[in-house]
Specification:
By secondary structure, this protein is an alpha/beta fold. It has helices at about 30-40, 55-65, 100-110, 130-140, 175-185, 205-210, 245-255, 275-285, 330-335, 360-370, 400-410, 435-440; strands at about 10-15, 20, 40-50, 70-75, 75-85, 95, 115-120, 145-150, 150-160, 165-170, 190-195, 215-220, 225-230, 240, 260-270, 285-295, 300-305, 315, 340-345, 370-375, 380-385, 395, 420, 445. It has a 4-stranded mixed beta sheet. Strands 2-15-17-16 form a 4-stranded mixed beta sheet. A 4-stranded mixed beta sheet has the order 4-5-3-14, covered by helices on one side. It starts with 9 loop residues before the first strand and ends with a strand.
Length: about 450
Amino acid sequence: MSSHGAPIPMTSRACGPLCGTAEVPGDKSISHRALILGALSVGETTITGLLEGQDVLDTARAMRAFGAEVTDHGGGKWSVHGVGVGGFAEPENVIDCGNSGTGVRLIMGAMSTSPISATFTGDASLNGRPMARVTDPLALFGTQAVGRQGGRLPMTIVGAADPVPVRYVVPVPSAQVKSAILLAGLNAPGKTVVIEAEATRDHTERMLAGFGAEITVEQTDEGRVITLTGQPELQPQHIDVPRDPSSAAFPVCAALIVPGSDVLVPGIGLNPTRAGLYATLREMGADLTYENERTEGGEPVADLRARFSPDLRGIEVPPERAASMIDEYPVLSVVASFAKGQTIMRGVKELRVKESDRIDAMARGLRANGMEVEEGLDWWIVTGRGHGEVPGGAPCASQLDHRIAMSFLILGMASQKPVRVDDGGPIATSFPIFEPLMQALGAQVTRDGM
């Protein structure tokens, strides 16, 4: 089943050129954080371009449950009347975060240093994901967590009544873990310090500074050291959410592999901690250009133009780039199938604990569709067949994972035979307009039986 209803089987088949403008939704990471930091501010935060996918809507509902006034004004315009740092009320009911690992982990952090309790749950996929990577560092503040075996949801978080500041070295690159700790540190006295050996997406740091928190970032021998002074009064802001580079990956990658395509994706956030895929595609020989580069709301933004690229070649992706493109490896593996030679991806064990085991899910589906894939715990290799040589024709399991579903639908747009996905329902969590957007460009994507 999809996260919020019955399965929606979908099929994608070879199509003519994809052409036009693809206005993808707002950035999911920034949308989550805008709602949460708005709820922790004093006064009204206004947001335009909010992603209205199910993941973000679940976070909006959660902020209401904690006492913030969250209003949808239509057309991606929202407002949040915050309750201030430490002002969260105890929710009356269980907080259902649906499919969103980002949502649940950030919200856990935000409430964990207030003297309240909250119980969290999600769909089958989210309830299978490990939460100890967040609850362990939150325990250092004085927070308690009681969940199912293996640190899994449903889980009750008992916030620390007298939180203490924390110094924490993040053991694996994870923006979710880092952000949960920083949000917890907001209501702890003194300075909370987070150290990451490898830089991860920095939206939380940028947005905390924008909301008036005292936060510094230094590069030292230990790594990237982030220091937050606790118990500020956050000031409400206006947030104009840039378009999501992770969602943009799908029309961009489709354009690269479908003959004759020319697609413009305007207003994409190109934060350097998120743009690894586009550097990788260029190294593979993709005809991908940035136009109208600018800065909006403290984030670098540009229009991306992607054109059909018949001479893609496999490369070894630098493992240090993994954190900046971790969500894009599934669709990269699709592009790699149409390249010549091996595309080698290392340092990617985080893919094993996403909405699904994304390495396993993609490897199974690609093999079924005629591709050669090798894999290990922390690496995988796709041997590309070149333009026009991918057989296709096999059904694929989405594993309740929106990015897996979309990746296999992109595969079908350029393979010799159609590709069927057992459930496209989870796509609504991050990219609710995926179908009409791709169809408007010329893609042949249909819901089976409809």
